[in-house]
Each structure stands twice: as C-alpha cells, then as structure tokens.
Amino acid sequence: MNAPSDFTPAGPAVKSAEERLSRYDWDAFAEDLDRFGCATLKGVLTPQECRDLAALYPEEAHFRSHIHMARHGFGKGEYRYFKYPLPDLLGGLRTALWPRLAVVANNWNARMGIDERYPDAHADFLRQCHEAGQTRPTPLLLQYVEGDFNCLHQDLYGDLAFPLQVAFLLSEPGRDFTGGEFVLTEQRPRMQSRAEVVPLMQGDAVAFAVHNRPVQGTRGTYRVNLRHGVSRLRSGKRHTVGIIFHDAK
User: Fold this and answer.
1) In angstroms, rounded to a whole number, what is the distance separating the alpha carbons of residues 159 and 156?
2) Is residue 55 assigned to a domain?
3) CATH of the domain at 197
4) What is a single Pfam family found in this protein's UniProt entry (predicted)?
5) Which tens digits make up the pLDDT trace of 202-244?
6) Structural domain count, the chain
7) What is the CA angle 38-107-229, rounded to 5?
8) 64 part of a folded domain
9) Residue 175 DSSP SS3
10) Strands (E), the chain
11) Mean pLDDT across 166-179
C-alpha cells in the first residue's frame, strides 16, 4: 500500500492552487453552503485548462477504472476514475481546497452532534482512509452525450466520507452542449423535498454536501439528506471533473 506522501502533489502545484483560490470570498462561500447546501466559485479554471482536462478522457494511462452508468442503474453516461498520481492541476486543487472546506465540515459536524473532526492537512485524512482500507483514488472525469443523465445519488465509498465535494464544469453551455444542469435535492423531515438547480459556466466550480448537512429549525438543529445528479443532456457533449476528498475501498 502506498503512503499518502507517495501521491501528494508537488509543492508548486499546491502553491499555484492556493494563489488561485485566494481571490474568492470564503466567508460568503461558507454562508451559501450553510443556506443552500451548495456554493459556486466562478472561473476557477481557464477555458484552456478545461479543454486540456477534457482531452484526457480517452487516454487510458490516466485512469484506474471506466464506468458505464447504464450497466449499474446510475443513469446514462460514463466516467473514469483517475489513478494516482493525479494530474498536477487536480492534485493541487484537491490539497488547496481541503483546509477551506474542512472548516465548514467541522462546523457542520459540531452542529449535527457528530464527533468526527477533520485534520488541517488532506494528507492526514488520506492516511486515515488508507488505514481503514480505503486506498483507491476517487477524483473522476465524467462524459455525457445527447440523452445522457446522472441519477440522484451520494458518493459514499466506505465508512470514512468527507461531507463536501467539488465539481468543475469543463464544457461551455450553449456551445458544447445544452441541458445537463447540475441538480441538488434536499430531503427535509416531515416536508416535501427541495430542489436546487445550479447554473454553471465553463471553468466554474460547485461545492456541495455529499450526504447530510445541518439546518436550523425552530426547535434546534436537525439533519437533512442530500442527493445530486445531472439532468438530461439535450444536445452535444458535456465533460465535468469531480474532486472527492475521501478515497474508496
């Protein structure tokens, strides 16, 4: 088994990602996550970076597995899980996003009465994953063509699951594809489910709750259950890259 240090991104990749992320208002970002269960970061990736990442899809050398959604009842479309080491851009962003998201995740767990707290460094969390037998990388590249969709789901790959993940839209809406909106649903106790449709442009990122999030009610804080998916693609081709922070069994 590899140690987390064997696939931690190089310093320059992390520094570049940290500089890229420093321009965002993270207090407003955390507030949106608290209010809606999701928050967007505009223009994280350049159009060229988006095209370069999407162009990796047919290159087998970058990936550990290839999933056809229809075979598993996940929807219609396909995706590939990256293998370690991740591309520098993705590895750097995964490492640099972690401490900002961990603050939110620790706050959520405290409010929901969950004892688990997440460490300051992502490598330390990966070490916990690997000690629990979760050793397979989970960042993935998704591809949809006309008629494809992704059923509402949760990306839980083992007992350890970080409560937030991030997806980046690599294709340009209106030019590369139509339809294919990112959808988040929230199941509230004794109430009907709430849907959130998140408009994204090429290079934008959306962070969202993987499983549960806290909501303040009249009688205190309670948990709501969330699922995410992608609506039917009306035309063209759509690529997305997803960063999941826990590894899989």
Assistant:
1) 8
2) yes
3) 2.60.120.620
4) Oxygenase-NA
5) 999 999 999 889 988 777 888 899 999 999 999 999 999 999 9
6) 1
7) 25
8) yes
9) coil
10) 38-41, 63-68, 75-76, 78-82, 140-145, 149-153, 164-169, 177-179, 182-187, 194-198, 205-209, 212-217, 220-230, 233-244
11) 98
Q: Is the distance from CB of 13 to CB of 89 less than 8 angstroms?
A: yes
**What's the chain's length in residues?**
249
Question: Residue 127 belongs to what domain range?
Answer: 4-244
Cβ(208)–Cβ(38) below 8 Å: yes
Instruction: Tell me, yes or no, whether 249 lies in a domain.
Output: no
Answer for the pair 147, 90: CB distance below 8 angstroms, yes or no: no
Which string of b and e fits 174-201 if b means at least 16 CB within 10 Å? eebbebbebbbebeeeeeeeeebebebe
What is the arithmetic mean of pLDDT over 21-36?
Answer: 96
Separation CA 151–CA 140 (nearest Å): 16
Q: What does pTM read for this prediction?
A: 0.93
What proportions of the chain, in percent to the nearest 5, are helix, strand and coil? 30, 35, 35
Q: Classify residue 234: in a domain, yes or no.
A: yes
Could you give the angle at the alpha carbon of 70 between the alpha carbons of 139 and 53, nearest 5°?
Answer: 30
Q: Is the pLDDT of residue 5 over 80?
A: no
